[in-house]
Design brief:
single chain; mainly alpha
């Protein structure tokens, strides 16, 4: 009985390996449709077969079955072990293609956390950040990618992009400085104008007060002259006797 179970186990293992092997061959021959059945069988026989999940996910992507690819990757991700970075990267790439920046960054970051020396994850996360306008966050990822992948065929393009980003930073800094200088000049102009208006207002107020004082003095002088001329009335002689006509 023990020998029988051993033989059955060997046959089962052989069948699993046979399905995966055939699926892998067809996948590598760029025949995703033909590889599907064998890879699905390999996973059904061994649900923790990470490489079979990776191949099957890519095959689904090639055939446009994006939801199926996501499901396969998400299913194996918690059990991917040393392949966690690759599975997470593939998920990030799918969400990138779907313009889901939040999920794409989440899985790129998970790939980096799983393998801090995984260059493609830094590159793709940097590309995502450029796409979403976060240039300052993209630059360190590009620099790390170039350090990790010094012989990458993409190096010239990445270096050119980094140079453009740094040039944009420099231009932005110049624009900031010019804007600050213009704001300072405007502040000085505004302060000078405010001071000029204050002086003009003070001068106008001084002229108004001088005019009021002048008019007031003139009126005072006129009042005094009026009082002086009325004194002659007191010298007019009164006649109490009645006049009689002859």
């Amino acid at each position: 009985m023990v020998f029988l179970f051993s033989c059955l186990g060997s046959l089962s293992l052989g069948a699993q390996e046979g399905s995966f092997k055939r699926g892998e061959e067809l996948f590598m021959a760029n025949k995703p449709q033909e590889a599907l059945g064998f890879l699905e069988t390999a996973i059904a026989q061994e649900s923790s077969h990470v490489q079979a999940h990776l191949y099957l996910g890519i095959a689904y992507q090639q055939l446009g079955r994006i939801d199926d690819a996501i499901a396969v990757y998400r299913k194996i991700l918690p059990r991917a072990g040393s392949e966690t970075g690759r599975v997470a990267l593939n998920l990030g790439n799918i969400y990138f293609s779907l313009d889901n920046a939040e999920y794409a960054e989440e899985f790129y970051t998970q790939a980096i956390n799983a393998d801090s020396a995984y260059g493609p994850a830094y590159l793709n996360r940097a590309n995502l950040r450029v796409k979403t306008g976060r240039l300052a966050e993209a630059l360190p990822d590009y620099d790390l990618y170039l350090t990790l992948e010094p012989r990458s065929p993409k190096r010239p393009q990445v270096e050119q992009l980094c140079a453009l980003i740094r040039a944009e930073f420099a231009a932005e800094e110049r624009r900031r400085i010019l804007a600050e200088e213009e704001a300072e000049r405007e502040r000085v102009r505004a302060a000078a104008e405010a001071e000029r208006q204050r002086i003009l207002a003070e001068e106008a107020e001084a002229r108004r007060r001088a005019l009021l004082q002048e008019v007031s003095a003139s009126l005072q002088s006129a009042a005094e002259e009026t009082r002086g001329s009325s004194a002659g009335v007191e010298d007019v002689q009164g006649y109490d006797d009645e006049f009689e006509l002859e």
